[in-house]
Amino acid sequence: MKRSLILWLALVHAGPSLAVDEAAVGIKVHRQSGVNFVTGGTGDEAQAFAEIAARYPVHVRFTVGGAPVAEKGVHIRVLDVKGDALVEADAGGPLFYVNPPSGRWTFEATWNGQTLAQTKDLTGRRYLEVSFDFKSN
Questions:
Q1: Could you read off the pLDDT of 55-86 as tens digits, one per residue?
Q2: How far apart, in whole angstroms, are the C-alpha atoms of residue 80 and residue 32?
Q3: DSSP state string for the chain
Q4: Is beta strand 35-40 parallel, antiparallel or unpaired with respect to 95-98?
């Protein structure tokens, strides 16, 4: 019992030092409208994105015919209920992680002339997975 308590205390106090910093894993953090987001996820970056995923409550994935988008070219917009853009960016790969405040958000993605949109509610400590599967030409 004493050993478990010591281990628990060590983990509690080490918690912040165990957090993975985006810069430490080579991912650039972008900021718009007071909101952080990261984009990429190709090749070796996929593991780095897995390590930082808990910092971002919204995970957007882009695929073409079911396969991850391996190139840049997806334009993503995160819109509030009024239709105003909170974030507007060009994705650097198949993953786009963002941390908007709680609320109703519309995620709009455009690739190769196709625009897809989904509206989701982000509440509390919940995580959202948003997937866009574009048709290949």
A1: 999 999 999 999 998 778 899 999 999 999 99
A2: 14
A3: -HHHHHHHHHHHHHHHHHSPPTGGGT---EEETTEEEEEE--TTHHHHHHHHGGG-SEEEEEEETTEEP-SS--EEEEE-TTS-EEEEEE-SSSEEEE-PPSEEEEEEEEETTEEEEEEEEE-TT--EEEEEEEPP-
A4: antiparallel
Asked if residue 111 has pLDDT above 50, the reply is yes
Q: Give residues with Cβ within 8 angstroms of 53, minimum separation 6.
A: 59, 97
Contact yes or no for 61/72 (Cβ under 8 A): no
CATH fourth-level superfamily of 23-134: Immunoglobulins (2.60.40.10)
Q: Where exactly are the structural domains of the chain?
A: 23-134
